[in-house]
Fold each of these.
Amino acid sequence: MPALTDLNTVREILSRHGFSFSKALGQNFLINPSVCPRMAQLCHPELDGEFAVLEIGPGIGVLTKELAQVAKRVISIELDTRLLPILKETLADYPNVTVINGDAMKLDLAAVLKEHAEGLPVVVCANLPYYITSPLLMRLLESRLPVEAITVLVQKEAAVRLCAQPATRECGAVTLAVRYFAEPEILFSVSRGSFLPAPKVDSSVIRLRLHDKPPCEIADEALFFRLVHAAFGQRRKTLSNSLGAAGYTKEQIITVLQAAELSPTARAEELTLAQFAALTKLFLTI
C-alpha cells in the first residue's frame, strides 16, 4: 500500500469508505511523512523493542504503522466507528496491532493494558485531538497506569503550558499537576500544514517521563489539587482572594500564607510545586 502520508492515497481511501472529517471529534490526520517516524523513535526512552504502546485516536493508522515497527505490541483506541474498516485495511500487515473501539475517557485503561500489553513495559504515543488534551493527559496520569512515558502531539500553546516551569508566567494548574506526576519536555514543532485538514494553529510533540515517586511529598493529594485549581482558576487575583474558592475564609487563608512566609498579594503563577505542597500541609492544620 502507498504511504498513508500521500495526499492522493489518503483521499482515495477516505472517499472509498465514504468518510468525512468530524469537527466535533477534532479529526486532523497527519500527512507530513517525517513526523510519525520521529514520534515512534522518541516515544520509548531506554526501551529496546520489548515494549507495548498505547495509542489513542489512530485515525487512519499513520502513526500506528510506525509504532508497530518499533514495538512488540500496539494497542490503539479509536472512538469513531467509521474508521474501523479503514484501520482494518491499512493495518492488515501488522498482526501486532490491536484496535479497540471505545472512548479513552471512559474505558478501563488498566484492564485494557492488562489484557493486551502482555506484561511488557508500556508507553503512550498519540496524536491527540486538541479538545481533549488536558483531560485525557490528567486521566492517564491520575489513573497511575503502568506507563513509563507519554509522547503526544498537541496544540503548540498547550505544549508550552504543559511543559512550563513552575513559578513562571506560562505556568497553570495543569503545569503543576503534570510536574507532580512527570518530567515534561517539548521535543519538536509541527506546522499546521502537516495535517489534513489543516488546523488554524501549529502543534508540538511533547514527552512526559513519569516519576518513580513525586518530586515532593504531598500530605493530601485531593486538597493539593483543590488548592491549585482554586489558585489558578482566578489567576489574576491574589492568593488571599483566589484560595477562597477552595472553601476557606479570608482569615484562614491569611493565617496560612503568613505561616508559609508568603505575601497575601502573591499570585498562583509565582509559586513552586514545593510551595503548594507546603500550603497543603498548613491548611490541614486549620
Amino acid sequence: MADFPARFESTLLSWYSLAKRDLPWRKTTDPYKILVSEVMLQQTQVDRVIPKYGAFLHAFPTVQALADAPTGDVIRLWSGLGYNRRAVKLQECARAVAESHGGKFPQSVDGLKQLPGIGPYTAAAVMAFAFNKPEVVVDTNVRRVFFRLGIGSEREGLSEDLQGLIAGNVSQKCSRDYHNALMDFGATVCTARAPKCESCVFNKQCVSVKKYTKQQMEDVASRIFKTTQSKFEGSNRYYRSMILKEVQRKQGQLVEELAKVLSMQKTLSEQAPLPAVAQARSLVRQLEKDKLIAEKNGRVYLP
C-alpha cells in the first residue's frame, strides 16, 4: 500500500479525460438505465450490448414501463444477449421498485440488495455510477490493474482480501469517473493479453512491468483473472436457447413439435443422449421454472 502512487487518481482521471470510451450508459445518471446496462453487461461483451441497450430503453424507457410490460415482450427484446433469466430478474426488480418504492431506487447498497436479482457487485455499481458514491466496484479489469500496480498479491487472487485492499484506494469525490476510468484502463491499456506497457501512464510506477516480461504478465492474468466459460454448443444452455427461440418464432406449439427441432441436431447431450421428446419436456420444465415460458394444455407460450 505504501508504494501505491499518491497521485494515482489524478493521473488516472487525466488519462481518462482524453481516452474514455463513448458508451451510451455513461450519458445518464438515471439508476434505472444504469441498472439495465449493468445487467446486460454481465458475461456479455460491450459491442453486443450497445445496440440492445438502446432498443431496450426505447421500448421500456422507465422503470414503470418495464414493470408494466408483458414478460414475453421483455424476453423477445432480450433475445440475442443470452442468459435470458437476466431479463426476467430485471423485470422483477422493476416491479419491486414500482410497487414497493414508488418508482424510486433505494440509495444504499443494502437497500438495493433487497431488490430481486441485485447482488453486491450490481448494487455497488448502481451506487457509484448513478449516485457517485464511493463504493467498491471491482470487476476483472479493475482487479488486474491494481494487482499489476502492486495492490494485492498472486496468492490472494480473486479473494475478498484483495477487494478490501482496493477499497482503500476508491475515490471519495469522483467515484463515477474513477471507476469508469479504471474499467477503461483495464479494457484498453492494462489488458490481460498484450498490455500496452510502453504507452501506459503508470509505466514508471508499475510493479509488474519491472518484475515480469509481457508473456509472464499474460500468464499470470490468465491464471488468476480470466474466467473460463463452458462450451455453449451442445450444452444444456444451447438447447434451452433453441427451445426459447422456437417458442418466440411460433407460440402455442406442442412439446412434441418442439422436440422435432431438437431431433435435427446430431446429438442432444454429449454424455447421455435422451429421446427428443423427453429432452424437450425436460427443457420446457426448466424454462417454465425460470419464468421464461408457460405451458398451457400441453402447448407452450411466452409468459
Amino acid sequence: MIETPKMTGERIKEYLQEGKRFDGRKLDEFRKITIETGVSKNAEGSARVNLGKTEVLVGVKLDVAEPYSDSQEEGNLMVTAEFLTMSSPRLDLGPQPFGSLELARVIDRGIRESHFIDLKKLCIKKGEKVWNVMIDIYSINDDGNLLDAAGIGAIAALKTARIPRYNEETGKPIFGEWTDEKIPLSKETPISLTVHKIGNSLIIDPTKEEEDISETRVTVCSSNGIVYSLQKGESKELSVEEFQKILDLVEKTEKKIYKEIESNIK
C-alpha cells in the first residue's frame, strides 16, 4: 500500500511522542550545519548555508543612498528573500509566495531590533548620503527550516562583508574595490531560531515532512538570553508552560549555532 502524506504525518507524530525522529535526531537537535563564506566575487559579503539538504545563499551589497526621512543620521537596511522555483517542486512560476515575504521581514526585524548593525556609523553626510545595506536571500533547496538557514546566512554574510571604496568627488562607491573596513557590528550576535509544535512535541530544525504537519511555530531572535524579536506562525495556541520551554530551548541552542558561525568565519 502506498503511504499517503496523512499517513506519513501520523507516523511522524507517533515517533515524536516517543522522542524519536525519522532521521535519528533528537527533538532538540539540528541537522548537520555547513557554512561557507565568500561564495560571491561581486557581493560585499556572502554565505552559503546548508542545514542537511536545505540550502540558501545570502549576499550583502552596499550602495550609497539618501537616508530615510525618520533617520537622517543612520544608514539604511533592506532585506529581501526569493524562493527560487528550482528549490522546491511546490513552487510555481509567478508571484513569490507569502513565505518569502514573511522570511525577509523576520530576518530584517531580528537584525534591526537587536541593533546588530550600528547604522549611525554608516552615515556619510547627515540628511544627504548614507550607506545602504541590502541583504538578499535565495533558496536553493527547500527541505525544511529555510527561516533558520536564512538567519544563519545573513549573520555570516554580514560578519564577512567589507565596505567598498568611496569616491568623494562622485559621491558614489567604487564597485569591485573594497577597503579593509567592515560593516560596524555589535559584539552581541543575534541568532534567529524557530521552534515547531507538532502534537505535544516541540522540535527544532524540521525537515519538510515535519514542517508540513507543524501546528504552530515561534521564531525567536536572541543573544545570550536577551530576546530581540518574536514571530508566531500558524494558528495553534501555546500554553504558558510551552512558551517557557520554547525560550529555554532557544537559549540552549543559540550558543551552539553561534559557535558554528564563528568557526566558519574567514
